[in-house]
Specification:
By secondary structure, the chain is mainly α. The chain is about 65% helix and about 5% strand. The protein has one domain. It has helices at about 15-30, 35-65, 70-90, 100-125, and strands at about 130, 135. Strand 1 and strand 2 form a beta hairpin.
Length: about 150
Amino acid sequence: MLVLRLQVFSTLQNSRVDEGVSCFIKAIQYALENARDGVVKEARKENSNLSRAMFSLREDRFAKWPDDEESSGFKDDLTALLNALATFIRETGEAVELLGIITSAATEINQSVVKAWKEVIITEIPMIRMNGRENMNGINTKNEFNPV
């Protein structure tokens, strides 16, 4: 059985997902008939791994720097990935586990938002006290604003 292994060196600014998927397409198109099913199975697995790696990298960046650029990066990454997978489907006629890939991406995005909230955002918001307790909305029972 032919095993696909692709090392695509890319950054988030220079995503090479489309190149990776293009390699998988060529591997399937040029596979011997008796090896094609194995190549397809391996390409599907590698497409999934590639998407997880892409979103994991973005998750790490967003968790450290939760800004507009990183936020829009999630959308850009998802768009690039879906375009590459659409090309894979169109060129090979093979199905892709889109629901699993999108679910994985959504989970990565959610985890990065939670991590950014806990480790960056919440630490930058001044805490407000309400009757001796920390309160994020800044209003106590007398409707007074009491900064710490």
